[in-house]
Amino acid sequence: MVPVSVVIITKNEAEMIGRSITMLRQLTDDIVVVDNDSTDHTIDISVENGCRVYQKSWDGYGANKNKGIALARYNWILSIDADEIPDADLLTSISRLKLDDCDTVYDIPFKAYYGNKAINFGNWGRDHHIRLFNRTRVKWSEPPVHETLVLPQNMRVQKLSGHLHHYSVKNVQEHEAKIVHYAQLSALKYQQSGKKANMVKLYLAPIFHFVKAYVFLLGFLDGKEGWNIARMAFKNTWLKYYYLDKAEQNPVGKKNLYEVPVMAYELKANAHTE
Q1: How many Cβ atoms sit within 10 Å of the Cβ of residue 192?
Q2: Angle between the 223-249 and 172-193 helix axes, to the nearest 10 degrees?
Q3: Distance from C-alpha of 78 to C-alpha of 132, rounded to nearest angstrom
């Protein structure tokens, strides 16, 4: 055991969370689960595996992660999502750290999956994130979506070996639902910050993101999954500016983006999954 607390936010993650907890229990005796009204067996599985579970109202990704950080036993925090599973190399890498420098944060490589297929190219094939940090120095930002770690100046970043294996989506339908969900949240974030939609953002930016993912980053080498990832990058970029544009044109939408009647797909994405 090492003096690291794991913080996980959840909603209906019974299918995946047991596998993640099984690996994490080899690292620490403190796993904090912040749950957003799960209706499956997420809470039961977490409790049965020795986690401390807290049911909190949903205030956003960053806000709920910060709630978990505040409840943690240790100052060093490993922040993961319920669909991310650490491998043995990563656990070994973390267990060997001295963790004696609060001004160092640790960057973890990701291995992404589309269904059960590992993705090696495109945006997903290059993924890595800072996920291990000291809570006395670092917290999450709290926008509607795409929260980031707020790092003080002069923080040192150290890369770890091993991977977090990210089972992002099961199929195209789930992927599309998540794209719509995140596009809405991104449009709300842009609206709140005063960002405007324009012709370049609506029509050229989606094409650029598709070409970048599929051609420049070699996404085509991942086969149909690479095509779907690039296609959804196009759709996400277009939708978020489409929603933002509609909100700008609609007086009601300026107060609440979700009142704008532009839903193109049924939203099925979990409220917390990234």
Answers
A1: 11
A2: 30
A3: 5
Per-residue pLDDT of the chain (274 residues; tens, 9 = 90+): 899 999 999 999 999 999 999 999 999 999 999 999 999 999 999 999 999 999 988 888 999 999 999 999 999 999 999 999 999 999 999 999 999 999 999 999 999 999 999 999 999 998 999 999 999 999 999 987 789 999 999 999 999 999 999 999 999 999 999 999 889 888 888 888 888 889 899 999 999 999 999 999 999 999 999 999 999 999 999 999 999 988 887 755 444 544 433 333 233 333 333 3
Burial 206-218 (b: 16+ CB within 10 A, else e): beebbeebbeebe
Q: Count each helix (H run) and each strand (E run) in the chain, helices first.
A: 9, 12
> DSSP label at 154?
T
Nearest to 151 by CA among 98, 104, 99: 104
Find out whether 212 and 236 touch, Cβ atoms under 8 Å. no
**Do residues 240 and 190 lie in contact, with contact meaning Cβ atoms separated by under 8 Å?**
yes
* Residue found under tokens 């969900």: 181
* Beta-carbon-side half-sphere exposure of residue 158 (alpha carbons within 13 Å): 15
Instruction: Tell me the C-alpha distance between 127 and 167, whole Å.
Output: 13
Cβ 184 vs Cβ 262: under 8 Å: no
How many other CB atoms are found less than 10 A from the CB of residue 266?
9
Q: Tokens in use for 215?
A: 């051609």
Q: State whether the Cα torsion 38-174-108-94 is positive or negative.
A: positive
pTM of the model: 0.86
**What region does 109 belong to: left with phi over 0, alpha with psi -120 to 50, or beta?**
beta
What stretch of H or E contains 52? strand 52-55
Token pair of 170 as six digits: 């099961």
